[in-house]
Amino acid sequence: MAGLRARQKADRNRRLLDAALHLFQTVGYDAARIEDIAEVAEVSVGTFYNYFQTKGDLLLATVTMEVEAVLEAGEAIVAAPPADVAQALDALIGCYYDHSLVWLTKEMWRTAMALAIQAPDTPFSRRYTELDGRLRQQVCALLLRLQGKGQLRADTDCTALGEMIFNNLNMMFIEFVKDDAMTPADLRQLVGRQNGPLAAMLRMG
Amino acid sequence: MAGLRARQKADRNRRLLDAALHLFQTVGYDAARIEDIAEVAEVSVGTFYNYFQTKGDLLLATVTMEVEAVLEAGEAIVAAPPADVAQALDALIGCYYDHSLVWLTKEMWRTAMALAIQAPDTPFSRRYTELDGRLRQQVCALLLRLQGKGQLRADTDCTALGEMIFNNLNMMFIEFVKDDAMTPADLRQLVGRQNGPLAAMLRMG
DNA sequence: GAAAAATATTGAATGGCCTCATTTTTGAAG
DNA sequence: CTTCAAAAATGAGGCCATTCAATATTTTTC
After folding, report:
1. Which of A137, A177, B11, B162 could form a disulfide with A109 if both were Cys (CB 3.0 to 4.6 A apart)?
2. Any CB–CB contact under 8 A between B31 and chain A?
3. What is the pLDDT of residues A52-75, one digit of tens each?
4. A60 vs chain B: nearest CA distance in angstroms?
5. The pTM of the whole model exceeds 0.85
6. B6-20 as b/e: b if 16+ CB within 10 A
């Protein structure tokens, strides 16, 4: 039988996630009421809260998917980065930015970020922060890789500069999701300009 | 007569702000209900909304005060910075961090940041973003000043690096307000470590 | 297979931000 | 001092995320 209860549970979970993602993308996060999501998923409001602690937790699944995908794409670049520092950073960062709106809308990103900041003692926030940390480490890993290949001054503190580069790209990403008119290409160019001078100093010779 | 109406208006406005700040600081932003604030200010809930558009707008007044104070203190440092790049940055950043909890609690900061991100098309967000921009410019101004005094390589792109340094200190400030256990001194030290390697590269000779 | 226990579902009720139709107060004009 | 229009105050009501006591379904036990 494989457990009727377990099957129903998995099924409802999926229906809720599908309904939520669909509504978030079409009518928007704020406009999608729990009641609507529950109705599309053919479940009661109360049942929704047996599956998720808060409305925001529905975002978490999508954010996680998006960031995991981005991290995986980033791995490929860290493994075989362009030789030039500026180009390597641009490749990694561009990969982050270009993948950022596959599943999430800007409104969803804004909500997720706001939740992560506003309620730090929350599973949501802890998970979001953890994903952020993995991205930060990936940037540091890229610098270390370049250093290992002799494309970056040996005396560079890759952790310090990696953190700074990551925090900068992350803050610029916040500006990006705050501005509906800004495209990923715009963002990439702005950050490229900021990284340029630093990359120049980091290069060998 | 000087206008009874105008006097009453100013008076109620002040009472509302005082009541809100007091409650935010004592019971917390979330726990302070509009009804409570209105009651302390001896005003009805409806009247509150004649004076402020949202609960969050009560934060804006305090955030503005805090940031304006910080900007002024920062001016003094930009005007007469320590000779060493690292020390100059540490002085300015320390000034920001040390002043940051005079009027606002970490919870209030978190709420303000969350609101600024979540609803960018809001007077609140626009104002918050503008204050951020002025801080960013001040960091850039410090670099330019140091460069003018010959304490920083002439070929440095002060805008690019200033933005990056600011975005880093701002993101670290977000981590700070997310973590109740972190002190301003902790934060200052962490950012000092991040800035150190960069400062070393920026120094003359 | 019936009864009991465990596990889930349900939707009406709660709490808190914000709105708005109504009432009250102020100030100007006659 | 009335009268009246403009400006402001009021609080009941709407909305929506979340909770919880009652009900229903699945699983286990005998």
Report:
1. A177
2. no
3. 999 999 999 999 999 999 999 999
4. 16
5. yes
6. eeeeeebbebbbebb
